Amino acid sequence: MRSRYKNWVEGLNGDWLISRQRFFGVPFPVWYPLDAEGETDYDHPIVAPEASLPVDPQTDVPPGYDESQRGVPGGFVADPDIMDTWATSSLTPQIAAGWPVREGAPADERLGSDEALFASLFPYDLRPQGHDIIRTWLFATVTRSFFEHGVAPWRHAAISGWILDPDRKKMSKSKGNAETPEDVVKANGADAVRYWAASGRLGTDAAYDTGQMKVGRRLAIKVLNASKFALGFGDVSGDLRTAVTNPLDLSMLSALADVVEKATQGFEGWDYTRSLEVTETFFWTFCDDYLELVKDRAYGGQGDEAAASARAALRLALETLLRLLAPFIPYATEEVWSWFGKGSVHRQSWPTRDELPAGGDAAVLPAVGAALAGVRKVKSEAKVGMRAEVRTMTLVAPAASVERIRAAEADLRASGRISELAYAEGESVEVRDAELVPVEKPATRA
How many other β-carbons are positioned within 10 Å of the β-carbon of residue 145? Predict the structure, then answer.
């Protein structure tokens, strides 16, 4: 997008014509004298004094004249043109920041004039806008700012694309293919719509996709449900970082620390879509694998110390994930935060790697998760429920994976309901020679 702006500026070969001949608009505060024959003298325009602005030359009169002289020989005539849209819209950063109408003038609420506010806000940090108005709004605003203040009006410009309909055409009211935002939010939920919007990268067009909104809605619901489990063990007090001692817990939090780093880099590089991707990918692994593996231990099935580690890890992960997901599903995360936290999740500091315990092996959770997936596959193929017991099985995996799985064997056994577990080395993780405990079917009546 920078190149599009650069090419436009370097290709300019004429002045910017800022006048338009339209009915509505901001008029030029200019009149022209009429000579004795009633001819307009365009070479000697009468400009309104700055102190009298704003004025409308069609109803106001220039200094030294009265209304009776309008349009008669020896009198004056108003400039009939209005300003180009971009000539006025180019001042939006200054106007929104309370640009003083006159230097040293007192604050004026009617005109938004506030010298102190302007000094603190201008130039802006960011201008968000579409790519179709790079040569108009963006160019005009930058040009006007340099003329008026000698600086760029902002530090960064975030250029978004169009929303495309199913035929890959731009959605617009004039074409009749646009959707009413209120209807979309009502049908899908605000979090789902925001999630879909975040899937479109800066500078690229995005397809209107209700399927993607459904994915966002599913994510929001999963956040609510997973949070209920994570918070279901009462208050977790003390230093949570030191309470985490289990290898599986440390692995999960180590992987989460990597996610925090990548998500932060994504936002700092204006790639919020990447931040969402890495956070969401981890979240589903957290739900599908970690929560299932840690459930027995969190409920106290392996002793108090093991339970304390699980509960501390759950709380640390939840606090971090809510802050990572808050920009994308703000309502679900705010709701969960209100269940246990103070204030708003949107007023909390952004998570950092240092908040999470160090020293964990991030590869433990994927290895144990792959083993759990193998157990699930065996049960699925046998057409039994996931609660079915495994009397004996052999877990085949690379040597490094075997070592990592052994570190969390108790969690794997509890989650998979495995009685006897043997290991063998192989190229990939898979379950062999599994013997399931027969499930007794209820007797049928004759």
Answer: 21
The CB density around residue 202, as the number of other CB atoms within 10 Å, is 16
Residue at 370: amino acid letter: A
CB 248 within 8 A of CB 368: yes
CA nearest to 386, candidates 378, 394, 398, 397: 378
Which pLDDT belongs to residue 172? Answer: 86
At residue 142, does pLDDT exceed 60? yes
CATH class of 224-355: mainly alpha
Buried b (16+ CB within 10 A) or exposed e, 350-376: ebeeebbbeebbbebbbbbbbbbebbb
Say what the pTM is.
Answer: 0.84
What pairs with residue 338 in β-bridges? none
Considering only residues 181 and 357, tell me which one the structure prediction assigns the higher pLDDT.
Answer: 357
* Tokens 């110390």 -> residue: 305
- Give the model confidence (pLDDT) of 294-331 as tens digits: 999 999 999 999 999 999 999 999 999 999 999 999 99
What residue spans define the domains of the chain? 86-160, 224-355, 377-436
Which residues are within 8 A (CB) of 244 and not within 5 positions of it... i.e. 6 or more apart?
A: 250, 253, 309, 312, 313, 316, 357
